[in-house]
Design brief:
538 residues, 16 helices, alpha/beta, 55% helix, three-stranded mixed β-sheet
Length: 538
């Protein structure tokens, strides 16, 4: 029996779509008007025109169509260069959104939607530009504000230049390492400036001088169940865990020390372990958070064992040793990253398809925004877990030189390079634990890692972290106390400096300037009298 489709489109496009759909061996019957329907349609297709996108009427029209023809899913076909931003696309109430699809993409989306899935494939455009505001007279900047603004402008300009050089990444390894190191230095300098002189309302969010095009949003759920959501997220993360994965997070990662093939194998092994752990959680009535934390060490151990073949043996001090068993005996995989958020919301959606709180809104787990947020949480866990495993592998390679050729990049075969990397990672960890984490907790910020556009990137979320703030040690609490003191004393110090500046201006203009004027006038009068006497004598 053919599926009945209801099509809304302009006449020319409607005729072409009707011929395409009716030619599919009787799979679809198309109604161009509601009067031609026999009962309810299985799917509603709306080809939006450029006029439908103006005035913010698109979401209202979609809601009307959804209310009129429910429970039939709605497929929205967008014209090219539609101009809708990514957030607007994710909030549209449609089960399917396609931008100028070809026939194969359209037919595949129809099959997915008719079986209860979701499809989103559209390029995120930019919002309409705002009219330029008339320049207003800005107040005079103090020394701290001037230093902050000028420093950030120079750093952002250099960052933009280096990002252009890294797109695409250079083939010369030395040049790539130099550019990435310079990128980390500039990011650290920017954070230091904000720490010393900010945060201020003037620093900021200046527009990127070279804005990069927004990526294409492509999400396909074959089913709206927890299994369908997990399969879609896993496919996206597997595609993003390529062997050429670069580091654009602004942080030095232990994962960079592994060879590209081992790096990809580790990420895929962790994903595979999450899949098996998820199946175990389905049959376990215990609380999800409790079981998840209990199984973390075992999950990392199995991922390490999958990374290294159980049959591989390497020489160590004159004898052959099994690599996998030796690594597991010498590694401590029971540690926990304190920056990992609570896993209960993520697990409830991935295991039981429960709604998820995203930006203050409770969304169904199959909503595009919820799927992207789940992907962000899972990719953050993936990168941080890979960091814990990679740090243990680097420590084992330091005491087992023959293992370096098997796991690490060629540059780390030298003992000096490997020890330099480990020392830098340890210093970064201490600085992050003592300074950066207390500041993040006090400012209610959380840094999450994500896999996007072939790179590991960082994304910051703002969420209350008061409970973690109260658990800090005395040294870390001193950092937050210094920030609080700075915020409390900053207005008074600025007022004092402004008063001192005004006093200096008064002294220079009224006292010293007047005295210099009087002295100059006396000199001029004396010179005038001398000249007059000389003329009289002559």
């Amino acid at each position: 029996m053919s599926s009945q489709l209801l099509l809304f489109a302009e006449p020319l496009l409607r005729d072409g779509l009707t011929r395409l759909l009716t030619a599919q061996a009787g799979l679809y019957s198309v109604a161009e008007r509601p009067e031609q329907l026999q009962g309810l349609p299985q799917l509603v297709i709306w080809q939006a025109s450029s006029g439908d996108l103006k005035g913010g009427r698109l979401a209202e029209e979609l809601l009307r169509l959804q209310e009129r023809w429910q429970p039939a899913p709605l497929l929205l076909l967008l014209p090219p260069a539609h101009g809708l931003a990514g957030d607007a696309l994710l909030q549209l109430p449609a089960a399917g959104i396609l931008e100028s699809p070809n026939p194969q993409e359209l037919l595949a989306a129809l099959a997915t939607l008719l079986t209860g899935g979701r499809v989103l494939a559209a390029a995120a455009g930019s919002a309409s530009p705002r009219p330029a505001a008339s320049p207003a007279a800005s107040p005079a900047l103090g020394l701290g504000q001037w230093l902050l603004i000028s420093g950030l402008q120079q750093i952002d300009a250099d960052l933009a230049a280096i990002k252009r050089l890294l797109t695409p990444p250079p083939t010369n390894l030395v040049q790539l390492l130099v550019l990435q190191g310079r990128l980390r230095e500039l990011s650290a300098a920017r954070e230091l400036l904000l720490l010393l002189w900010g945060p201020l309302s003037v620093a900021w969010g200046a527009p990127d001088p070279c804005p990069s095009p927004e990526p294409v949003l492509a999400i396909t759920l074959q089913q709206r169940s927890a299994d369908g959501i997990w399969r879609a997220i896993r496919q996206r993360l597997e595609a993003g865990s390529g062997a050429e994965l670069s580091n654009q997070s602004g942080q030095l990662l232990a994962l960079e020390g592994l060879s590209p093939e081992r790096r990809r194998d580790l990420l895929l092994a962790l994903l595979s372990q999450v899949d098996s752990l998820r199946q175990r959680l389905l049959d376990d009535p215990a609380p999800l958070q409790q079981r998840w934390e209990q199984w973390q060490p075992e999950l990392r151990q199995q991922a390490m064992r999958s990374l290294v073949n159980s049959y591989v043996q390497l020489p160590c001090e004159g004898s052959l040793l099994p690599v996998a068993d030796s690594l597991l005996r010498s590694s401590d995989l029971t540690g926990r990253d304190p920056e990992l958020p609570e896993a209960q919301p993520m697990l409830a959606s991935l295991v039981r398809a429960q709604p998820l709180l995203v930006d203050g809104q409770l969304l169904a787990a199959d909503e595009p925004r919820a799927v992207l947020y789940l992907e962000l949480l899972l990719s953050n866990w993936l990168v941080r877990s890979a960091e814990l495993v990679s740090a243990e592998l680097l420590a084992s390679c330091a005491s087992w030189p023959e293992l370096r050729r098997y796991l690490l990049q060629p540059e780390l075969l030298a003992t000096r390079n490997l020890e330099r990397l480990r020392n830098q990672l340890n210093a970064q960890l201490r600085w992050s634990s003592w300074v950066e984490r207390p500041i993040s907790l006090y400012e209610s910020r959380r840094r999450l890692y994500c896999l996007r556009d072939g790179a590991i990137r960082c994304q910051e979320l703002t969420e209350p972290r008061d409970a973690e703030l109260r658990q800090l040690g005395w040294l870390q609490q001193l950092v937050t106390l210094a920030l609080e003191s700075r915020d409390a004393l900053a207005p008074q110090v600025q007022g004092l400096l402004r008063g001192l500046g005004d006093l200096v201006v008064v002294l220079l203009t009224r006292v010293l300037g007047r005295a210099i004027g009087l002295v100059g006038r006396g000199i001029a009068q004396g010179m005038g009298r001398g000249i007059a006497k000389s003329v009289g004598r002559s």
